[in-house]
Automatic annotation (TrEMBL), chains A, B:
It is an enzyme of class 4 (lyase). Its EC number is 4.2.1.68. This is L-fuconate dehydratase. Residues 200-296 form the Mandelate racemase/muconate lactonizing enzyme C-terminal domain. Gene3D superfamilies: Enolase-like C-terminal domain, Enolase-like, N-terminal domain. The keyword ATP-binding does not apply. Its cofactor is Mg(2+). PANTHER family: ENOLASE SUPERFAMILY, MANDELATE RACEMASE, MITOCHONDRIAL ENOLASE SUPERFAMILY MEMBER 1. SMART domains: MR_MLE. The lineage of its organism: Bacteria, Bacillati, Actinomycetota, Actinomycetes, Kitasatosporales. Keywords: Lyase, Magnesium, Metal-binding. It catalyses: L-fuconate = 2-dehydro-3-deoxy-L-fuconate + H2O.
Length: 440, 440
């Protein structure tokens, strides 16, 4: 009998991170790191499941779950083998749903829902192939990878033929690079010292720890108060010395003029990049900031809604560093498009991570990029934040400031059943107990 | 006692329009016009309610309702008088919710939900003032109107001082214009003849009817098949003659190169504008299309997600015609920003309408624009589509191709209780009967 998809189950998972000020920045003072989590089940004899999720920061996670539920009918009943052989067809069907498309198109809640479902299918496909996703992708033929990309609205910047040529060129030397990857891993930088809610003492301590852990770049949140930022940058630079890179991140706090002024005021501390200086929608604004603050680099991407905005950021020369996110755009397929665009324009990709499971996911994309496309880790680092990894069955492994290459089959997306039971909102063990405590 | 907001009730309302091919275009072959509808109730003695909604085209309307529900806690308990005296505070609180913001920011499902709630508050405020919204806005002082605009991310294109100056200049001659408006109304154009699903015979008949009804512009959907489009444009042009404007609308179907090629292939029929030639996110793409297809004008806006993208469309010289939508962005407050940006750049606003109730809402914004900002109707028309008006308590009134100025207090957003009861999904009278017929 032909195995088919039999269920798409969703879970509203929330962690009470706001109580520790973990993850606090200039725009997000009190996040409760959350996941709209999805499990795709089949009736295949192998018993394998596909797991995926979208990251949110608390309120509204139920809206995200509702959006994933709205996609269920597109997934149920599909043949497992055909689906895993060509996730791009599902990706196009989800993006192309002519009624759901009105709610975007290709942005916000509906698009993140598509990403969660598509990523769950890639998890299943890689598990069925018995490979970690990075290897599953890097082993694929260039023409198949190109077939997985939706080139609609991209061809003025990148054609399928150009994409295939980039992939053919990119795979040269792959064997040597894979040996290096398996030995050393992929470079990381850490944001853990730099949350706005932390004291100077905690910032110093965590910055020292970052050096001890082998990181060569840290990141500080800025943008709430300039005097505070100057003091915190000075503290951090004193701890790390002149040779460690220090990025700063404004989380969209500023207008174009404010971004330029504030970045220049921090220039004496030699920031490596200014991240999210203004609205993620403002391509022309980022271009203006970049012209004004060089040699400080401009980075953005964690809130960039889709490949069309990334295309323009590259066309306009608006960014030095492209920070794709594994779970905001339409899943692996759209991230393939974004990696290809970055390669075409020669802009390094330094992915956004942190939150819930974003490190687990995005490492696979960077490792694929290294093996099969960019062919280098120069000026490339994956963000690392030491939060909530314990909830994952195959959590990331860091050593000497590098992400070690995952060996387990799949996309590293699977959470422990106990974590789902405990943090399911509002009826999981933690939240039910919390409601009792609050007298609700 | 101080009157407060006591309830925010939501309704999932869907009309089975797909069964008649009303509203069919190149990207939306089978829309079921729908509304995520909201009623704001108070304990004030006047018994007035605020009504608002977001328009969708069917599936996913329940996600939109969930998003509105996620905003409820921001609204309940607010003082009615304070809220109606300053809807901008609520607008900023909703956009600024630090957790919900992650689901956008300011785009897609969450942003449309904010628009529905904010518009309901404006409906209530205008009702309490005893004025139709257009008059409520046009009677307001420039500095108060400026206080209602969120200038975050706008100041590189428009400052509060510039906005106030535009409003002060715009109100000159307002008395004479208001007399004209009350006498003649505001010019409209009609899309009713041009849906893709209609036969040539129906197209001809409806185009003739448009002339008889006094319209001086019609619009045809294009983009599915070039030979069909050439034939349909020829049929329409033969009916309407050379002096009536004929716009064409591709509903985002094309890449940049396709948009240029296709528009040029239709140029012999003298299209007035090409609408949505490509992705609404592609500012640079629209600019490239505009450079290539002049003198055909480029129009977009019904899917433009917020003021930041409109800002860039204007900065980049990407559009000749700005088509704001009453219910996609963050409500009246953000549309004030968009009208001010259009005035600053001297680009005419020809709003998107149709769907469910979009004509009812947007007429107020254009009439305000005429009285208090642009001061002209030259090259300005509001879209008109003759669908579903019968469900509204104070439906639009058209005469001689003009929208007549509404006289009832409020935003014209209120639907008949019987319509809500009949088309509530899935348990309203129509849908319950339909499910029985389908044997579900």
């Amino acid at each position: 009998m032909t195995a088919r998809i039999t269920a798409l189950d969703t879970f509203d998972i929330r962690f009470p991170t706001s109580r520790e000020l973990d993850g606090s920045d200039a725009m997000n003072p009190d996040p409760d790191y959350s996941a709209a989590y999805v499990v795709v089940r089949t009736d295949a004899a192998d018993g394998l499941e596909g797991h995926g999720f979208t990251f949110t920061i608390g309120r509204g996670n139920e809206v995200q779950v509702a959006a994933i539920n709205a996609l269920r009918e597109h997934v149920l009943g599909r043949e497992v083998a055909a689906l895993c052989a060509d996730p791009g067809t599902l990706n196009r069907d989800l993006i192309g749903d002519s009624q759901l498309r009105w709610l975007g198109p290709e942005k916000g809640v509906m698009h993140m829902a598509i990403g969660a479902v598509v990523n769950a299918v890639w998890d299943l496909a890689a598990k069925r192939a018995g490979k970690p996703l990075w290897a599953f992708l890097a082993d694929a033929e260039p023409d198949w990878l190109v077939s997985q990309v939706d080139f609609r609205y991209l061809t003025d910047a990148l054609t399928p033929a150009e994409a295939e040529e980039l992939l053919r060129a990119g795979r040269r030397g792959r064997t040597e690079r894979e040996a290096l990857l398996r030995e050393r891993g992929y470079p990381a930088y850490t944001t853990s010292p730099g949350w706005l809610g932390y004291s100077d003492e905690k910032l110093s301590r965590l910055a020292r720890q970052a050096l001890a852990d082998g990181f060569t770049q840290i990141k500080l949140k800025v943008g709430a108060d300039l005097e505070d930022d100057i003091r915190r940058c000075r503290v951090a630079r004193q701890v790390i010395g002149p040779d460690i890179r220090m990025a700063v991140d404004a989380n969209q706090r500023w207008s174009v003029a404010e971004a330029i002024e504030w970045t220049k005021a921090l220039a004496e501390f030699d920031p490596y990049w200014i991240e999210e200086p203004t609205s993620p929608d403002d391509v022309l604004g980022h271009a203006a900031v970049r012209r004004a603050v060089a040699p400080v680099k401009v980075a953005t991407g964690e809130h960039v809604q889709n490949r069309i905005v990334f295309k323009q950021l590259l066309q306009a020369g608006a960014i030095d560093v492209l920070q794709l996110d594994s779970a905001r755009v339409g899943g692996v397929n759209e991230n393939l498009a974004i990696l290809l665009l970055a390669a075409k324009f020669g802009v390094p990709v330094c992915p956004h991570a942190g939150g819930v499971g974003l490190c687990e996911l995005v490492q696979h994309l960077s490792m694929f990029d290294y093996l099969a496309l960019s062919a280098t880790t120069e000026n490339r680092v994956i963000e690392y934040v030491d939060h909530l990894h314990e909830h994952f069955v195959t959590p990331v492994a860091l050593a000497r400031g590098h992400y070690l290459a995952p060996t387990a089959p799949g996309f590293s997306a699977q959470m422990h059943p106990r974590s789902l039971d405990t943090y399911r909102y509002p009826d999981g063990v933690f939240w039910a107990a919390d409601a009792l405590t609050e007298g609700r």
